Structure formats: structure tokens, C-alpha cells
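User: Predict the full complex structure for these chains.
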Amino acid sequence: MFKKISREHVIFFGGALVVFLLIQLGISLGIVINDFWSTILRIGAVMAIVSLGLNLIYGFNGQFSLGQWGFYALGAYTAADITYRWYNDQSALGLTIVFLGVIMVGVAILYLRTVLSRIRGLDALSAFTVYFAATLILGIVAFYAGRALDAPVSSILITLPDAVSMQIVFILAVLVAALFAAEVSFLFGLPVLMLGSDYFGIATLGFTIIVKVLLDNSDTMLGFEEMKGARGMIGIPKITSWFWVFLALILVVVIMRNLLHSSYGRAIIAVREDEIAAKAMGVDVAEYKILTFVIGSLFAGLAGGLYAHINGFLHPNTFNFIKSFDPMIIIVLGGLGSMTGTLAASFTWAILLEGVLRLVLPQGFELWRYVVYPLILLLIMLLRPKGIFGDYEMPYLRQLLPPLRKKEPEPVEQAQSKLSEAAQ
Amino acid sequence: MNATKTQTPALFTTIIQKRLLGKGFLVVVALLALWKLTASFMAGPTVFLQQVINGFQLGFVYALIALGYTMVYGIVRLINFAHGDVFMVGAFVSYYAIARLELNTWPARVIPGLPNWLSLGIGVITVILISMVVCAFLAFTIERIAYKPLRDAPRISALITAIGVSFFLEYFGALPFVFTPNFVTYVRPFQVVNWVITPQGVSPLAPGQAPPDNSVIFSNISLVIIVTSLLLLMVLNYIVQRTRIGKAMRASAYDKPTARLMGINVDGVISVTFAIGASLAGAAGVLYATAFPQVYFVMGIIPGLKAFVAAVLGGIGSIPGALVGALIMGEAEVLSAAYISTPMRDAVAFSILVLVLLVRPTGIFGEPSREKA
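Assistant: Here is the predicted structure of the two-chain assembly.
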């Protein structure tokens, strides 16, 4: 299975293990890292997962998406609803319905893709209609099947010890939430990815806004009473431990690294560099765009599921679209197309903005926080537009990639600048 | 599905070739919307008309903001997120001009005995002009400090910078000694006068009096908004179509390097574009605050986004497009708030954007894209 275990592997996984153990030790013994800092670190890891997903979509595939935060919100609320029902009512209703729905829709999408790809000349909107219809039908089926399965599944789960069943429900909930976000992103991405780059950005921003509006009215319009709409959802079990976030983060990094180092990854990057050239080389551009969008959103959903169980409290304002710029800012500061930069920037963001600034600075400074923050952003953009890390990668993640496309001065501009030099 | 392998039936091929499935989906959505609109109209024609008037009022404000977006995006291809906050600054400036300096009635104080309507008219125009000038200077400064150094950087840098400027304007404005972090009740520059339009005719409505049944109320706010917006639109259209700077703008939007070779000072043109767009946003801020008398430091975000959506909907770079797109946005927002549900109005707005772009990828009035696909 392993062809060879190189030095980079040892350094990366060994380093990860050491970091994990050190922080876990700190948390368990209560030295240096108290509850506050442990929360900050977990939020940093969650942010890293969201931002890695966005970096995959924007940094590596070049699709300007502002929808990451919406998928994050979907993942958070889906997972929270599932665990909430188990934690408070000992009911597996949420789990069975979402699990069945996600699995059935997922299988249907995969099957329909093989069928539809054989039909020549099928346009994306027609394909979307087929997927949409299938999702609607299967969603209804899953709803009733899930209700029927609720009692037997609950009775099996209840026989297990409380902690074990809670962990099982939690893990399943987070995975199912991630898949749910991925499937929504597939359905949403099919028509929307046809729009141009900036229009895609605005449409995805619209998605984030719509999700936020739905969450604000989740108790009245959607009928999820436990989500309590704009009052915020409480009573979610706080079971995201440092172990789970760290494991998820490492998994995401490894999956993303392996994806990017494969032929898929090269195709994804080719789409970013030049769509027409990629098409000429036989890369199915539309296919790779939707693939990266779905994987990126999957990461967002996963992160959302983990985030929901950190504080045990969710509020729609957390998923305000203004915050959706946070992962965008993180990946740009860290460096587009640099996983190392994203990781570093996420933890810096969490530790500095969420941690240090809140603790160290006096009370009145809270107001100034968002005055200073954009100023730092502006300065970095003006002084170092490629981000702090540029396209640097740590050895394990490094690959002989083409560098990020630089804007060559257009011939006319070159000629003009020469002319103006000559004139002077 | 075996049919695809063996022999494809004619009907099946037609469906695929003519893209009937996708078109059918769009038609179903359009029919649903049309049905909803007709049903709402039948349920109460006067209420519906009232909403349409409210929608126009909102749409014209959006149009003024959308013009700034469409001009700036047309030239520098930058979604200027700070534009909505310039709009907010315009609203606050007019608030101070009216509530603190009482500039809306200055002619009456300077020349006693001036008719009230003339004094108010000149005063309101002064307030709008002050907001426009302040906003123009603000945008000019922003452009010079934040955007100009990044002209040749990747587009995302400029975009992130725009987001940064937007945050800065909001939260700098939220500081207690600048504007304020609280909601501020706006002082309208003139008294509201309502007219009742019934089949019998138009009659003024006394304050506090309930409007009769089956009537539509039209206020002087709507009138001022529509007239001011149309005037500014005509001025803008004149500037863009008939003047040298307008010609330079169009040339720069079309092809920047060539425009530069033709001796156009492209950087100057871009600055002027930002300033003109911002002055329109400033005027929009005054009008918006007059219609919805409350100002707040993040009030600009959602109208700004809506206006950008309107600009995209109408076709980036097109002035009539921005107007039409903005009117559609205004109507969609008001009608969906009235007949679907208030929170869903943003969802409706963005759904319309996606649907229109699927049918016409460059917007309603947009020219077919000259760039690579």
C-alpha cells in the first residue's frame, strides 16, 4: 500500500503527532491551555478546514466563491439538529432522515452522472433539472422512510452506553452534514458555475445570504422549532474535542494534498491557469469545476458540523455573510494556492483576533477592532499582494507545480512604458 | 435508458438537442411567478398597485447606487464593495446637514419672506449636493489610496482591498465620535404629504386621516425620489454620451491599453468615474434615508449588494440596463416582501439574478462578452 515512506512523510506526520500530543497534554493537565484557549485552538482548526476548502475552490481552481460560509452554516445546523434530537429527546429521527436522504441522493447523483454523461449534447440546465427532480423525489422518500426507521434505530442505540452512543451519533452527524453540504453545493453549483467568474461570486454570496435568512426563520418558515430561528439554537452537546478537530484537519490536509498531487489536481490547476488551454488539452473544465466546488463545500460542511459542537450554541449571526469574507481573507493573507499559508493564517487569525485581541486589549478597544483589522488587511494587500506565504508549501505538501499566474504586462503597455521612458 | 445504447428515439433526441428539459424548468419557474403575481393582483388590485408604487420608489434609489457599480465595474472590473458604505456616508452627511445645520431651510433664513416651497426646494437640493460632493471626495480619496496602487496586482487583491475599505468605513463610522454605533432617527428634510388616488380623482390626505378603501396612496417622497433619480440619470447619460470625459470613460471601458495609446489619461478617467459613481450613491443615500427614516452604520451593505445585483441583471456597463435592473430588483423586493414573506425578499432577488443570467449571461442589456469564455 505504501510505496515508500519518505522523509517528508515522517516529518509531517511526526510533527502533527507531536503538536497534537503537546496540545492535548496541555488541555488534559490544564497547564497553559485553559478552556478559553482550547476553544480558540479548536476554532482555529475548524477555520483551517473551511479555508482549505475555499483555497481548493478559489486558490487552486480559480472559482471566486463567497458561498463557503453558507455551506459551513448548512453543515453546522444539520449536524447540530441531529445531535440535538439524540441528546435531548433520545430520538434518532434527524439522523435517520438525513442519513437516508444523503445516501440515497448521493447514490442517485453518482448513478445519474454515469447515465447522463453518455448522452451527447445534454446541456447543464437540463442535467440540473434531472438531478433536481431526483433529489426532490428521494428527499420525500427519505423523509417517510426515516420516520419509519426512527424507532428501531433509536432502540438499538439506546442499548449502548450513553457516551458511546453520543459519540456514534456525533461522528455520523458530522459526516452526514458534510455530505449534505456537498450535495447541496452540487445542485447549486450545476447552474451557477455556468455563470462567469464574478457573477459566480455574487450568486454564491446570494446563497450565503439566503441560508442566513432561512436560519433566521428556521422555526417559523422551515418548521424546525428546536433551531429557534434568530434567537439562536441552544442545547447542542459540546463534544467536539481537540482530538476530533485535529483528526479532521489532518484528514482534510492529506485528502487535499493527495488530490492535488494526482492527475485530478493537475487538471484542477490547469483550469485555474487557462480554461481554454485546459479544454484544448482535453480537460473537462465544467466537470473539474463542479468537482472542486463539491469537495470544497464538503470540507465546509465538515467544519460546520465540528463547529456546532464546540460551544453548544449556534446563532444565525455567526453565519452572516459579512463573516463569509473571513475565510476569503485568510486564504488571501496566507497565500492563494498555498495550503501551508492557509493553515498558518487560520491559526493566526483565531489566536490573534479571537484570542489575544479580546484578552489583552482594554474593553473600549472592542470598537476599534474592526477599524484596525481592515487597516492591517489594506497594508498587507498594498505591501504584499501575494499573501504572507506566497505560494510556499512545507515539504510534505510541496509539489512541482506551475507558479501562480502572474499578470504579464500587455504588449501595448510595455511599448507605452518604453515610449514614456524615451520621452523622459 | 437502454434506448441510448440501442436506438435513440426521435423524441428523445429532440428533447436533448433543443435543451427542452432545462427550458421546461425555467418555464415552470416563470409560470409559477406569473401565477403568483396574477393571483396577488386579483386578490386586491389597489393593494397590488400600492406595492408597485413602493417598488418603483425603492427601485429608483437602487438605480442610483447601481450606476456607480456599473460604471466602476465596466472600467476596472472591480466589485467595489465600499460603494454601499459610501452610500451610508451620504445618508449620514445629509443627516448632519439637516438635523444639526438645518441646511434644508437655509434660504428662508438668509432671505426672509421667501416662499416656503422655494426655500425648501433650494434647501433640499443643497443637502443632496453636499452629500454628493462629500461622497465624491471620499471615493476619490479611497481610489487614490487603496485601489490605484493595486491596478496591476491580481484582481483578488483589489477585491480584498475593497472589502477592507468597506469594513473600515463601516466600523470607523461606528466609532462614537464619528457617526455612532446606534440607529439614528433621520430627520426628513420636508414634511410628508400624501395624496390619495381613487377612481374619482386625486385628493390630498390630511395627516392622521385613514385613507379610504380602494385607494392608492402616493406621497411626495416617491415624487421627489423618482424626479431626482430621473434628473440625475439624464445628467449622467449626458455626461457619458455627450462629453469628452464620457467618451474617455467609454473608451477606457472598452479597451484600456488602446485608450491609453490614444492619449487618454486612463487613471484620471478612473478617478472621475469613482467620483461620479459615489456622488450618485450620496444622492441615493439622502433619498433612501428620506424614504426609510433611519440611518445606521451598516445600512449600506444590503442596498449596495442589491444594487450590484441590479447592475449585473441589467448588464454591466449599461446605464439603461442599470435602471431596468434596479426597477426589477425594487419591484421584486417589495412584491415578494408583501406576497411571499418579508425575509424571503433577498432570496427572491438573488434567484432572479441567477435565472436571468442563465438565460442571458451578460444581463438584460449587456453586450455579448468580448472576453474569453
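The mean pLDDT of chain B is 86.
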